[in-house]
Write a structure and sequence with these properties.
By secondary structure, this protein is α/β, with parallel strands linked by helices. The chain has nine helices and seven strands; from the N terminus they run αααβααβααββαββαβ. Helix 9 links the parallel strand 6 (192-200) and strand 7 (220-228).
């Protein structure tokens, strides 16, 4: 009782707010208010083999399946949520969305055979500057809710790269095509892995990371993100 009273007093001065819409959260809400949790624009792509995210990679790399949880549009609540996640230090957003999305992926025939979750890695210098890898936090939530392995060591970022913001698709590909390395070929040999990032725009980063993982014999790669910018 005293603990709850203490929390209520703190909330008067430092109210917890929904990280998508900014409304004050009720006691039984966390990260997202119930309204945003149910009404943010979900894609449903994890149930559709031929979806806009999957099409982005056709003819480029043979991913088994591809999906995103939410649609990303400028000025939307999803954009605000992603901005809070990437730039404002709210890393818990990634784990929260991962825990929501993981059970949905587990029920899909396109993703239910995944045995490991691999986040797109950051270079150590960028990781030190930002303080956390947003893709890894999303991957943590997915791995926990899907009851699969979280693998943060097989794929590494060997070279730093410039920011992808405002680059063309070709420039983005040139910027990332040789920056990833595999450290342990045997660990994921013959397995279905889930490669994850926070947002899919052109898909260049996931494409480059996937191409690197394809050096592993028998590997099957699927990709997901928190949000995607699709036309």
């Amino acid at each position: 009782m005293l603990h709850q009273i203490g929390e209520d007093v703190i909330s008067l001065f430092y109210p917890r707010v929904c990280l998508a819409c900014g409304n004050i959260l009720f006691r039984n809400e966390d990260v997202l208010c119930f309204s945003c949790m149910y009404h943010l624009p979900k894609t449903g792509f994890h149930l559709i083999e031929d979806n806009p995210v999957a099409r982005q990679f056709w003819g480029k790399i043979g991913f088994f399946s591809a999906a995103s949880c939410y649609y990303f549009t400028k000025g939307s609540k999803v954009q605000h949520l992603v901005h809070q996640f990437k730039y404002k230090g709210y890393k818990e957003i990634g784990a929260y969305v991962g825990k929501l999305y993981g059970p949905e992926l587990k029920k899909s025939r396109l993703f239910n055979s995944v045995s490991s979750v691999i986040p797109v890695p950051l270079h150590p210098l960028k990781l030190a500057k930002r303080g956390y890898n947003q893709a890894e936090w999303f991957a943590k939530g997915l791995a926990e809710s899907m009851k699969t392995e979280l693998d943060t060591s097989t794929l590494i970022r060997a070279y730093s790269s410039e920011t992808q913001t405002r680059k063309s698709r070709f420039s983005r590909w040139e910027n990332v095509r040789e920056i990833f390395k595999v450290t342990d070929i045997a660990r994921q040999a013959g397995k279905h892995v889930l490669l994850v990032d926070d947002v899919i725009t052109t898909g260049s980063t996931l494409e480059a990371a996937g191409q690197t993982l394809l050096c592993i014999p028998g590997i099957q790669i699927s990709v997901v993100s928190i949000a995607c910018a699709v036309k």
